[in-house]
Amino acid sequence: VVVGVEQLAQSQQAFHRIEALLGGSRDRTWSTRDPRPGDIGWVVDRHGALYAEEYGFDHRFEALVAQVAGEFLATHDPRHEQCWIAEHRGIRVGSVFLVRKSPEIAKLRLLIVEPEARGLGIGRGLVRLCIERARDLAPDPVVVLAHGQCDGPIGCDSDATCTPGAKSVSCKCNTGYTGDGFTCDDVNECLSNNGGCDVNAN
Q1: Fewer CB in a 10 Å sphere around the end CB: N or C, the chain?
Q2: Residues 144, 187, 191: CA angle, nearest 5 degrees
Q3: Residue 74 contacts by C-beta under 8 Å, 6 or more apart in sequence?
Q4: Inter-residue contact 169 to 126 (CB < 8 Å)
Q5: Is 37 left (phi over 0), alpha (psi -120 to 50) or beta?
Q6: Cα–Cα distance for residue pair 86/122, rounded to 1 Å
Q7: What is the pTM for the complete model shown?
Q8: Could you tell me the sign of the dihedral formed by the alpha carbons of 182, 183, 188, 193, in that order?
Q9: What is the pLDDT of residues 42-52, one digit of tens each?
Q10: SS3 37
Q11: Cα gap 18→93, rounded to integer Å
């Protein structure tokens, strides 16, 4: 078997990547940072590969991701829009983009988490960053997920209902829960009007 230098280098990189991720199984810490040169290309590459493998998307989806990422690089307003790259043990494992649609509506785009890093809370944490950033920009913002399918990695809470649209989805907490749809907490009915019980009842 003859292995080229480029193949060997790629194999070594993959080995070191898996080694680092597996070695960090006890380390659930992760961090985010602003994108650096090469990161946006990585976002496009990983979206194309993972969506093809996990959801059967073809090259047209990768082209769409490249368009969205390219537009962000060329025209994004840093006052209202942001991209985060997630890292675990120094390795890129996720991304998310917050893009302004209107003064009150922000779009969450290109959310991705590498399979090896799932279960660390990265996806939910990236969504939370977008929501917090949007709240800094508007008193009562609406954050929509720019993904038209509810079976994709959209980030709705398990106690929320996903409503698909042509180009985006929305998340709404189910009855009995409160929150923004991305994080839903069980409502304590006893705290509201004594849960409907008599004023002299517990």
Answers
A1: N
A2: 135
A3: none
A4: no
A5: beta
A6: 7
A7: 0.64
A8: negative
A9: 999 999 999 99
A10: coil
A11: 11
Q: pLDDT of 144-184, one tens digit each? A: 666 545 555 445 677 788 776 555 566 778 888 888 776 77
Supply φ then ψ for residue 124, to 5 degrees. Answer: -65, -35
Cα angle: 159, vertex 147, 113; to 5 degrees:
75
Q: What angle do CA 120, 124, 125 make, to 5 degrees?
A: 80
DSSP assignment of 86-148: EEETTEEEEEEEEEESSSSEEEEEEEEE-GGGTTSSHHHHHHHHHHHHHHHH-SS-EEEES-S
Pair 16, 80: CB distance under 8 Å: no
pLDDT digits (tens, 9 = 90+) for 84-101: 999 999 999 999 999 888
Q: How many CB atoms lie within 10 A of CB 197?
A: 11
